[in-house]
Design a protein that fits this description.
The protein has 15 helices and four strands. It is an alpha/beta fold. The chain has one domain: Rossmann fold (3-Layer(aba) Sandwich). A four-stranded parallel beta sheet has the order 2-1-3-4, with helices on both faces. Helix 4 crosses helix 6. The two termini are 16 Å apart.
């Protein structure tokens, strides 16, 4: 699928234009996910494959920078990436149509059931120090925080929201576009786009990691492999949260709360039967039936 000029995506703390002029290398890995869809999980897996040991040499955020995050100056992020000697794996929450598609790179997109993503996003919102985030992005740190509704009310509003997905990438339209675009690229034969379901990381981690190793060209050392699979487990990541969280600059109130539960089904359990029906009606307006079957965990075939 050709792509001439990337679409620009912006939020209060992200700008995809920071990818402009980025110099790719042979073998680069770009991890493109929606928030709370398994970004840190996939970064951890890539780190384990790159270094071949559960003992990572640096915190994950240093090994796998988030290029389009406005919290850190772009020049500093790019300099860190250009100074890396290991195979690079770069984090982004930008959909694939918003970043350069380079034939030397492999793009991994992780998808999660949108309702589970939304519940996790809601709880993540309660763990962010908004004043600190505003300070780091050049906004007024003394501005009042927005009111925080109850989960079920927030989830209903999230399902119904119908604004510009370019400005609200974590909205339901934004989520469906991100996944649907990646799906279309895979179906069209893009051999450098890999689509992974969050539930595969939960229930099929060994097989999924082996598949990724094969796609990315990493050998599997059977003697050390079980330790790598264990290190990519949710409990292990919870225990190692201080070294795996996306930021150590005071944005998160509690690092350990970043890895909250790591399960599927919370979104569906939150809503009534009628509310679930409303979600499915809305989802059907935003994504093709084959995408939804896979996304809602009715099989993984792409």
């Amino acid at each position: 699928m050709s792509q001439a000029v990337p679409v620009r995506y912006r939020s209060h703390d992200e700008d995809s234009a920071r990818w402009n002029g980025f110099r790719f290398r042979e073998g680069d890995i770009v991890i493109s996910t929606r928030s709370k869809s398994g970004t840190t999980w996939m970064q951890t897996i890539c780190a384990l494959l790159v270094f071949g040991t559960p003992e990572l040499p640096q915190p994950l955020a240093d090994l796998s920078p988030w290029l389009d995050w406005l919290v850190e100056p772009r020049d500093e992020v790019v300099a860190r990436l250009e100074g890396q000697q290991h195979r690079r794996f770069i984090k982004t929450h930008t959909p694939l149509d918003g970043i350069p598609i380079d034939p030397r790179a492999t793009y991994i997109v992780v998808a999660r059931h949108p309702l589970d993503l939304a519940v996790s996003l809601y709880h993540q919102g309660g763990n962010i120090d908004r004043a600190r985030l505003r300070e780091l992005t050049g906004e007024d740190p003394n501005a009042p925080d927005p009111p925080r509704p109850e989960l079920v009310d927030w989830l209903r509003a999230w399902i119904a929201w119908d604004g510009d997905r370019h400005l609200q990438m974590d909205s339901l339209p934004g989520v469906m576009w991100h996944i649907g675009d990646a799906w279309a690229r895979v179906v069209a034969g893009a051999d450098n786009v890999v689509l992974v379901h969050y539930d595969q990381l939960l229930g099929e981690r060994d097989a999924t990691m082996r598949g990724l190793a094969a796609r990315l060209g990493f050998p599997v050392d059977e003697a050390t492999w079980p330790a790598l699979v264990r290190a990519a487990g949710f409990e292990a990541m919870q225990q190692n949260a201080e070294r795996l969280i996306p930021a150590s600059n005071g944005i998160l109130k509690d690092a350990n709360a970043f890895f909250r539960r790591g399960v599927s089904g919370a979104g569906r359990a939150t809503l009534s039967t009628d509310e679930l029906a409303a979600y499915h009606d809305r989802a059907a307006q935003l994504a093709a039936a084959d995408v939804l079957r896979w996304l809602h965990h009715d099989g993984y075939d792409t």
